[in-house]
Amino acid sequence: MFDLANTRIGIVGLGYVGLPLAVEFGKQFPTIGLDINAARIRELQVGHDSTLEVAAEELRQANHLRYTDRAEDLAACNVYIVTVPTPVDGYKRPDFSPLIGASTTVGRLLKPGDVVIYESTVYPGATEEICVPILERESGLRFNADFFAGYSPERINPGDKDHRVTSILKVTSGSTPEAAAFVDALYRRIITAGTHRASSIRVAEAAKVIENTQRDVNIALVNELALLFERLGIDTEEVLLAAGTKWNFLPFRPGLVGGHCIGVDPYYLTHKAQQIGHHPEMILAGRRINDGMGTYVVQRVVKLMNQRRIAVMDAKILVLGLTFKENCPDLRNTRVVDIVREFGDYHACVDVYDPWVDPQEARHEYGIDPVAELKSGHYDAIILAVGHRQFREMGAKGIRAAGKPNAVLFDVKYLLPAGSVDGRL
Ligand SMILES: NC(=O)c1ccc[n+]([C@@H]2O[C@H](COP(=O)([O-])OP(=O)(O)OC[C@H]3O[C@@H](n4cnc5c(N)ncnc54)[C@H](O)[C@@H]3O)[C@@H](O)[C@H]2O)c1
């Protein structure tokens, strides 16, 4: 049992988290990556990663890695690592269906001595309360007698080429001291930055979810300050730059909070809190402020348009950027859609331009058809919503060329010099 030399790894879910991990393990251990999305498996089999996280050359370096969409191909594995999504439903409640599906799959493959490690972000207790009972039911095996569990949260940041899976210190944990030692040793084989062995799975789960909750609340505070400073007629970035000269002032900036993690994970924690009778205030207040920022941006732009006597109804609006963050194609939970929809409510005509997105995905996820190229002299207002490098390279002059002579230019991202735009957060 717990024999590193005979480890055969199965990774369940080959998205932003699962693929880079599979590639690193696949350089050292026999590894099979499973995904229920057959199209994803086909692209990986021909050496292409559409998330742009892993380059073709790196995929080639993973000599011992194979891809499959058939669960039975993982039958010979003895360590399973689950990296499936953990979204929220329409009521912002945790949606455990991917974790339940993956646990059912793994449970049917489990053999005595196997270890199942979860990486998906959850609330403290979820692995042992939700996933382990499924593993027991499907396998007929006993937890911590026949099979073991671990939890090791992922900290990667899509699009970030400096902080890679191997260079980010990783928290590990296990369901028994021996399992914890094995999980830690396993990750130490690939993580050059080292590991931090947490005392329990629940501690490791809690650590991950508060990392993102802390960011969410901090951004919410700065967003609230941006609302306040606008009323006071002072520029938020100037205030933040001045305050940032103090050694312990945290460098957060206002903005939209989208994506698969920061805008979602806090709801896992608040759900658990409510389940045990604690009503979280700070965390939900932060979520409310951050979720209102798209509407606020539109209000600001509409005011500026009014001041220039530009009618909002039927106005031509250009939104630059649709992804949830700069320089990556990730559209999940992007809050730029709030800006697009809000302008739609004003009966304005909105074009979205984003050189990073897959147009089919934008249509499928949000019913938005991004324009393929920019018209010139066409728009009444331009909102720079995402800080892609292409927009930085265009500069204020290049961006303004898409607008009419008196068009409003609003910068959500502090991408352009303050004096070159008409408004910003
Ligand atoms: N993306 C990030 O930056 C990031 C960072 C840290 C942690 N996380 C967490 O990691 C987890 C995974 O996130 P992600 O961004 O990699 O998601 P993702 O959507 O990019 O990838 C998940 C993959 O799992 C597959 N999948 C879903 N159900 C499956 C099943 N039953 N069997 C096999 N495959 C299945 C999907 O087809 C998809 O390809 C989430 O809990 C997320 O919160 C994400």
Automatic annotation (TrEMBL):
Pfam families, alphabetized: UDPG_MGDP_dh (PF00984), UDPG_MGDP_dh_C (PF03720), UDPG_MGDP_dh_N (PF03721)
Record-stated family: Belongs to the UDP-glucose/GDP-mannose dehydrogenase family.
InterPro entries named in the record: 6-PGluconate_DH-like_C_sf, NAD(P)-bd_dom_sf, UDP-Glc/GDP-Man, UDP-Glc/GDP-Man_DH_C, UDP-Glc/GDP-Man_DH_C_sf, UDP-Glc/GDP-Man_DH_dimer, UDP-Glc/GDP-Man_DH_N, UDP_ManNAc/GlcNAc_DH
UniProt xrefs under SMART domains: UDPG_MGDP_dh_C
Domain spans labelled UDP-glucose/GDP-mannose dehydrogenase C-terminal: 318-418
Gene: tviB
Transmembrane segments: none
Name of the protein in question: Vi polysaccharide biosynthesis UDP-N-acetylglucosamine C-6 dehydrogenase TviB
Keyword 4Fe-4S tagged: no
